[in-house]
C-alpha cells in the first residue's frame, strides 16, 4: 500500500482496511513538478477500497477483497477524455478560445468550450460572434489580467488571472477553502432509508447493484464519479436541461454505464419528483445554490426522500466570495498557483491531465460509497461535498512524492479497449478501480445525449 492513507481518512474509512491495498508503481506516469501521480493513485485507491468495503457489507465476500492500484491504469483513466476515439476520430478537448492569453500585466486563462460561454466571453470583450483569435488577443493584451477576470465573470463568462501560490494564499477564497476539510461529510435528516437487498450477482462483484443514482452533473468531476458508480452496478440516470446539450466527446467519455435523459426542472417537476421518490443517491455538479430554487438543496431533497445520499461537487467550494462562480479544472489550476508552478521560461503551464477533475471525481465516488456503507448501519441519509479548489490545495500542500523506482511505463495502450456503441466504435480507457472480483468493464456503452426516457428502468 503506497500513500492512500490521507484519501481514505478523508472519506471516513477504517484505517484497519488499508493493508488490503497494494500498488503497482510505474515510472513516467503523470509526470509533473507537483505530485500528480501520488494524488491520482490515492484517489483511485480510496474509491476502490470503498467499493470493496461496501460489497462485503452487502453480503459479498466474508473478508474485504484485496485492492490493486496500478499506476498505468490510473494514468490512462486520468487521460480518458484525451484517449477516447470515436470511429478513429480523436476528441476535441479544448475549444480555440479556451487557452492562456497575455494581458497588459501578466496572463489570463479563458474557458469557452460551451457555445454560451464563448458568446459571453466575446461580449465581455466587446467583440462580435466569430471574432478572430487575433482580435481576442489584441483586446486582452490591452487590459490587466484581474480586470479581465472580473469583467468576464460579470458577463457570465469564464476567465481567471494567473496567480502564484503566494498570491492565492492571500486571497479570501483560499482562506475559505483552507477552513474546510478535503471531503465534507455529515448526516442528513433522521428518517431511515429503504433496506437494500444484497447484490444479485456475485461475479463480478457489483457493490452498487440495485442502487438508483440521479446524476445532475456536468463536465468533468461529477460525471467521472457517476461513471464509476455505474461501473459498480448502480443504475445511473443522467439528467440535463434540454437547452444545454453536453459536449459530444465529453459525454461519450463519461457516459459509460449510464442512461441519458433531458428534463426541464422549471416545467417537468412531476417527472423529477417521481425520479427522486425512487432514488438512493443524488449527485449534483452545478454552482453551490444554483439548484436550490428548484428545491434541490440537500435538506430539501432529504425531506422529500428520507435516507437519501446527496453528493455535491463544485469548482471553488460552497463558501467564500467565489462560491457562486463557475469554474473548471484548468481555471482552478490558474487561480491556485498550480499553473505558475508548472510553467517555465516565463509562461504558465498545466498539469499533465485534468487531475483536479479526475481526482475529485474518484474521491466523490469514494465518499458516496462510504456514505452508503454507513447508511447500511443506521438507515440515515448523508451528504458529502467536494470542491476542485480543495483538491488543488491537497496537491500543493505537502503531499509526499514517491521515492524513485517502480516499473517502466510504456504508454496507455495496455489499458485501452474498444467497444461498439450507437455513437460509433469507441476506443477508451478501461476502469482503473480494481479489486478482487471487480467488473472489468461497464455493462453498457454510452448512449447519444438525451435519448433515454426520464424514468428508471
Quick take:
The protein has 457 residues and is an alpha/beta fold. The chain has helices at residues 5-10, 36-57, 71-78, 80-83, 115-124, 133-141, 145-154, 165-169, 172-178, 221-231, 248-254, 269-277, 298-304, 329-335, 338-342, 355-378, 388-396, and strands at 21-24, 26-27, 67-70, 85-86, 100-102, 107-110, 159-161, 184-192, 212-216, 235-240, 258-262, 281-284, 309-314, 380-387, 407-408, 416-421, 424-429.
Explain this structure to me?
There is one protein chain. By secondary structure, the protein is an alpha/beta fold. It is built from 17 helices and 17 strands. It has a 7-stranded mixed β-sheet, with helices on both faces. Strand 10 (235-240), helix 11 (248-254) and strand 11 form a beta-alpha-beta unit. Helix 10 crosses helix 16 (355-378). The radius of gyration is 21 Å and the shape is globular. The mean pLDDT is 95.
Number of helices: 17
Main beta sheet, described?
Answer: 7 strands, mixed
Alpha-carbon Rg, integer: 21 Å
- Overall outline: globular
State the distance separating the first and last CA atoms: 39 Å
Assign the structural class, choosing from mainly alpha, mainly beta, alpha/beta, alpha+beta, or little secondary structure: alpha/beta
Number of strands: 17
Topology:
Layout: H1 5-10, E1 21-24, E2 26-27, H2 36-57, E3 67-70, H3 71-78, H4 80-83, E4 85-86, E5 100-102, E6 107-110, H5 115-124, H6 133-141, H7 145-154, E7 159-161, H8 165-169, H9 172-178, E8 184-192, E9 212-216, H10 221-231, E10 235-240, H11 248-254, E11 258-262, H12 269-277, E12 281-284, H13 298-304, E13 309-314, H14 329-335, H15 338-342, H16 355-378, E14 380-387, H17 388-396, E15 407-408, E16 416-421, E17 424-429
Parallel strand pairs: 1-3, 2-15, 9-10, 9-12, 10-11, 12-13, 13-14
Antiparallel strand pairs: 4-17, 5-6, 6-7, 8-14, 16-17
Helix pairs in contact: 2-3, 2-16, 10-16, 16-17
